[in-house]
Amino acid sequence: MFWINFKRIVHSGFTNFWRNGIVSLSAVLIMFITLFIISITLFSSALLQHTLNSLQDKVDVNINMLTTANEQDILNLKTSLEKLPEVEKIEYVSRDQSLVTYRERHKDDARILSALDELNDNPLGAALNIRAKDPRYYDSIQTFLNQNQPAGGATTIIENVNFAQKKQAIDRLTTIIDAGKQFGIVITIIFVLLSILITLNTIRLAIFISKDEIHLMNMVGAEHGYISGPFVVTGALYGAVSAILVLISLYPITYFIGPRIAPVFFDMNIFSYYVSNFGQMFLIIFFSGIVIGAISSFLAINRYLKVK
Questions:
Q1: How far apart are CA 8 and CA 142, in angstroms?
Q2: 28-47: buried (b, 16+ CB within 10 Å) or exposed (e) per residue?
Q3: Burial of 18 by CB count in 10 Å (0-12 exposed, 13-18 middle, 19+ buried)?
Q4: Sorting pLDDT into bands at 50, 70 and 90, what band is 76?
Q5: I want to staple 132 with a disulfide (CB 3.0 to 4.6 A). Which of 137, 185, 262, 265 is the partner?
Q6: pLDDT tens across 151-184, in order?
Q7: Residue 207 neighbours by CB under 8 Å, 6+ apart
């Protein structure tokens, strides 16, 4: 009996979808806009996260060594720093590499280059470039350096650490990252709630056409599940069809605008992101459409189920 009722509910749902062509088209268009907003939110979240990660990757702290520092001592310090859980990456720059980089940076300044040529020895020391897993971790790395390599004394190999000069920029970046993540969450919630509200009101209009049929079924004692089932199936169909249309339309849209906005977002191409993450995007958009359509239909018809 259950299986028979289930098949009837599904069949009625499909019948309602095709029978009310204009209403179904309107609902699908609204659901299309709803799911398109959700997809824009997903892309925006990915772009924001990529931008924040790119900004974070550009922040590092440089430990400049004394010219008299022994290379093995520097490498030992590097090994100690690599053991810290806060450290993501450390790059060792030798004295010769430092000089080459310095010359390249000042290649247009003849006075500096001539002054370097007059020196008998390399005036630059080696360096360690540290990148933390999170900008807020640089404080603890600085504390480690202070405890293990004092700023003065005969045993020090460190000339200076430029953390103090970069601290303001690091603190500002940390604030931007935290605010960006919170903003992304808030915007996502707002868009999803607005999408559900719009869809709910649209499906209410679609169900309003069948209110006399619903009241009649109520009067003859039909179970609420049997009454609401076809409309829930129809709502799920609205969402499924809309999701497929959104997924199809995203391909040419992202293909067109992806290369044009990539330079603004640190070379992230949303078309490449869409293609490489299509499976995940498909699941999110497709099931979001089904769930939003089904829930909206259930909430919309619940109003008429209460009428005796």
A1: 70
A2: bebbbbbbbbbbebbbbbbb
A3: exposed
A4: confident
A5: 137
A6: 444 467 888 888 767 777 777 767 777 777 777 6
A7: 214, 231, 297, 300, 301, 304
> Are the CB atoms for 129 and 90 separated by under 8 Å?
yes
Residue 137 has pLDDT above 90, yes or no: no
Cβ-contact 28, 238 below 8 angstroms = yes
The CATH code belonging to domain 67-156 is 3.30.70.3040
Beta strands 87-93 and 158-161, pairing class: unpaired
Distance (Å, rounded) from C-alpha 260 to C-alpha 267?
Answer: 10
For the chain, the domains span 2-55+174-305, 67-156
Residue 150 has pLDDT above 50, yes or no: no
Predicted TM-score of the model (pTM): 0.69
